[in-house]
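Reader question, answered in our methods column.
A reader sent in the components of a multi-part assembly and asked whether the whole thing could be modeled at once rather than chain by chain. We filled in our standard form and ran it. Here is what they sent:
COMPLEX SIZE: two components
ENTRIES:
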Amino acid sequence: MILTLIALPSIALLLFLSQELLNSYYSRIITLIGIYGIMAVSLTLVNGISGVFSLGHAGFIAVGAYTSALLTLSPEQKEMTFLIEKLVWPLNSIQIPFFWATIIAGLVAAVFAFLIGWPSLRLTGDYFAIATLGFSEIIRIFALNLNSITNGALGLKALPDHTNVWWAWGWLLVTVATVLSLAYSSFGRALRAIREDRVAAQAMGINVFKHQLTAFVLGGFFAGISGSLYGHWLSTIDPRTNTFGILLTFNVLIMIVLGGLGSITGAIIGGALFAFLSEWLRFLEGPMNILGFKIMGISGMRMLVFSGLFVIIMIFWPRGLMGRSEFSWDGLVSVFKRRYKR
Amino acid sequence: MSLLTLENVTMKFGGLTAVKDVTLRVEEGEIFGLIGPNGAGKTTIFNMITGHYKPTDGRILFRENEITALQPDKITRTGIARTFQNIRLFRDLTVLENVMVSQHHTIASNGKAVSWFFKSVTRLGYSEKEREMRNKALELLSVLGLEMLANEKSSALSYGSQRLLEIARAMATGATLLLLDEPAAGMNASETAGLVDTIRRIRDDFGLTVLLIEHDMKLVMGLCERIMVLDHGRTISEGDPAFVQKDVRVIEAYLGREWVTVGK
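And here is the structure of the entire assembly that came back:
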């Protein structure tokens, strides 16, 4: 507890130093780690802790990104961007600060989560996964075609680059604090009980549907927040690419499985590792000189090595890096003790 | 009026009639046994009482309120809790957590849910409630002799202890009627003897009513005050242990018709 209190300011100090000392490329990656962390933690609440397997996370992230982008762009910019059809009335004339736009993005995503969760949480297991997968595809199709709101295939461009290290890591802190305290309350215990045995949980007086819906909506809320941050980090939202498509869901899924499905701190580690590796491995795609052989860069090589690394991690840590346990200082100490005893 | 009443309850699965026209009254404070050969419909009756199945016909009343086909969690909140024949503990949770989960509905039931939700996020006034639940859970564990195992994962427990934990978990819901589905299955003789004492003790100390299914005849005859015998979904005999043991229809159901004629 005390160590955690010391750790938080030191992380803040490190972030500050990284801003001062490192170039903007690195500080962008550090920001991305924060954003991925939020995505992973919010999906962990749904997939890891309450045990409903959602594949619709990208849908909520996209909803959040669009919502906040439409709120932070200036009316003149919107006038210029919306070439196909004019933006509908209330949206075309408002511009609000980034903080509020992000909150509203979260709320709108939560409403979407409620609307999709209400009918589909009556399904279980694979059926629910397919329903949410369908939902995120529907969001993408709507984004492509709803010209008067999303600007259709042209997407939204030149978003103000509001997202910096502080926004990303600040929201990460809020997300982690909320999800952690919830997951380790009676509510979280009930969710884990549902994950372990749905029938028995219901027989012990737990309203399974309501609990899962609450978790799903909250997961949607933080997904919306991360979407807002992600949109303003990329500064473009293009529905034609897969940035906000199914691939994003699977990337987030990789993060949480990598970190350990059901572990919140594991999700952050998974997110950080994912962000770090996917950038760091870029050197593989440049021209290389191995043993005198000159190799031209092969694009896509990065992803190949990336997947190889995941397979290796899954072989040695089949339940992810953290399993279902959380990071604790005692745990860290005991790891080092074991090292030195050998 | 009886604590639990089943009125002419019938359960059909397609063409199969699992339970036919069963009427059952359980009085407050008694230990009632439900026995019968495999496939007689005993567990089906449990599943109907707890709302896991919706009876095809008939009514189920608890404290004179109709509970027929309510959702299982609602039925539990009215005061009926069960254990499972094939143990269904929350395997990845600790023994203590398993028991605490059952108390969750007391703080998150209708109306209180929203205020409670913010309480647990902000942690304001929450730890007191948590401590209360923890203490109650520990007390129940010590009643069943599991307090030493409180921080073990429930899946690490021996079979007999898991059965006891299922009872503790059911009791923690605050139920007044316990439905025990084969509580002694997989237990050795000394564990079974201990179980008989335990069930009697919790009935007396907590003012519970117990309805149990069991195949161990020694346990049933020694523990239950009234017994109902089912065969092929129908009631074939009902009464105290001495009466049921002598009933020709019961012997016939268990041992076959020839045995009855030879016995005469």
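What stands out: The CA atoms of residues 32 and 221 of chain A lie 19 Å apart. The mean pLDDT of chain A is 86.
Send us your own complexes using the same form.
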